[in-house]
Amino acid sequence: MKTKSSAHYQRQYRKRLRERGLIKKEVWVLPENARLLTAYEKELRKSSPEINNQQAFMMVEQNEQWTTEKCFNALSDLSRFTKGEASIELIEGLNPSIYIQMHDFGDLPIYCSVSGEQIIVESVLWAATDIKDKNDFNEMILRSHKYFPLSTICLDQGADGLSYYFMLGALSATAKLSNILFEIEMLASNVINVTEAYADFLKTTNGENA
User: Fold this and answer.
1) Is 164 helix (H, G, I), strand (E, B) or coil?
2) Is 54 within a domain?
3) Is the pTM here over 0.85, yes or no?
4) Alpha-carbon distance 41 to 186, whole Å?
5) Rounded to whole angstroms, how far apart are CA atoms 68 and 55?
6) What is the CATH number of the domain that holds 164?
């Protein structure tokens, strides 16, 4: 099955937000307040937000080192997954990983795994063949990826042996569960935003970005 580019999930994400009656508002905040903004944004998408309820933004703390299996079990119990906002599956094997579908981000797929001392969270952006001019695009990535907090972009080989651009985030293998969830949600948001920001660098298919 052909790997879908992030542009597909961006379109699905916007469509579902519009269907929920939501509107887009651009805001400017200090970098250190990005996490708080994400929490408030999530609440403000509800018909009856609980902005003053600190419990809405609290998660279980974790100080022990995670394994992929432990991380999967802990994430599975969180409301985002139990309420169907996202689905989660453990892919077992020599190097197990967690497969997540972010339903409120157009079913965007995200992979999460524990590797040594860090947790890696990543998602495919585009196949390298979807880019018009790789030299121009790579230069733009190097100059501007810093504007997407907590995530970076790399070029790597996919499971099918082809080259893909990935967006990824990393955090300590002893991170709090709340920080792991935040990393997943931030990555999903950044994938949508970076697809919009770099749309002009993509080839088009049937009048749409790849």
Assistant:
1) strand
2) no
3) no
4) 12
5) 27
6) 3.30.1460.10
Does the structure show a pLDDT above 90 at 9? no
Range of the domain at 162: 6-20+33-45+59-202
Beta strands in 56-130 (DSSP E): 86-91, 97-102, 108-115, 118-127
Torsion angle in degrees (nearest 10) through CA of 76, 79, 84, 86: -60
β-bridge partners, 67 = none
**String of DSSP letters for 85-98:** SEEEEEE-SSS-EE
Predicted confidence (pLDDT) per residue in 106-142, tens digit: 999 999 999 888 999 999 999 999 999 999 999 999 9
- The structural domain count of the chain equals 1
Supply the pLDDT for residue 32: 62
- Tell me whether residue 208 is in a domain: no
SS3 state at 6: helix
**pLDDT confidence tier of residue 7, bands split at 50, 70 and 90:** confident
CB 102 within 8 A of CB 95: no
The region that residue 62 occupies, defined by phi over 0 for left and psi between -120 and 50 for alpha, beta otherwise, is beta
| Structural domain contains residue 51 | no
Compute the average pLDDT of residues 19-44: 76
Q: Is residue 189 part of a domain?
A: yes
Q: Are 185 and 150 in contact (CB under 8 A)?
A: no
